[in-house]
Recover the amino acids of this structure.
């Protein structure tokens, strides 16, 4: 008996464009994005989510799900590639998250704030799912 075909399954594309999570997610962490991702490439920190760049298939379904517009294509990253680096680094050490959790109760007070990464980012892992 032949093994089932995997050609119809989403495949990771190393060195391809990816989506990244940026500053707006810090202290908000709505998590609507994790449930629509077909390849489960989100990883959870204590107060921030990241996308594993080598797992993202660039489908873009997560981008419109974020109410604070924290998810963008890596082509919109800062010139030094800061967010791609942050996403890649923490996706290696934080737990995978595939189910939306409870967003922080105080998230509304941080929704419109900028520069949150430098002020509030925690490298501690989240709970994952």
């Amino acid at each position: 008996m032949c093994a089932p075909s995997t050609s119809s399954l989403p495949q990771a594309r190393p060195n391809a464009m990816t989506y990244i999570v940026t500053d707006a997610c810090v202290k908000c962490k709505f998590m609507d994005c994790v449930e629509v991702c077909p390849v489960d490439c989100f990883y959870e920190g204590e107060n921030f989510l990241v996308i594993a760049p080598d797992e993202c298939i660039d489908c873009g379904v997560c981008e419109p799900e974020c109410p604070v517009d924290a998810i963008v294509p890596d082509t919109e990253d800062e010139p030094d590639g800061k967010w791609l680096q942050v996403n890649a680094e923490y996706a290696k050490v934080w737990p995978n998250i595939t189910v939306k959790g409870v967003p922080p109760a105080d998230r509304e007070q941080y929704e419109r704030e900028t520069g949150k990464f430098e002020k509030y980012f925690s490298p501690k892992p989240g709970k994952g799912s």
Residues 30 and 103 are 5 Å apart (CA to CA). The domain at 19-101 is CATH 3.30.70.20 (Alpha-Beta Plaits). The radius of gyration is 15 Å. The first strand starts at residue 19 and ends at 21.
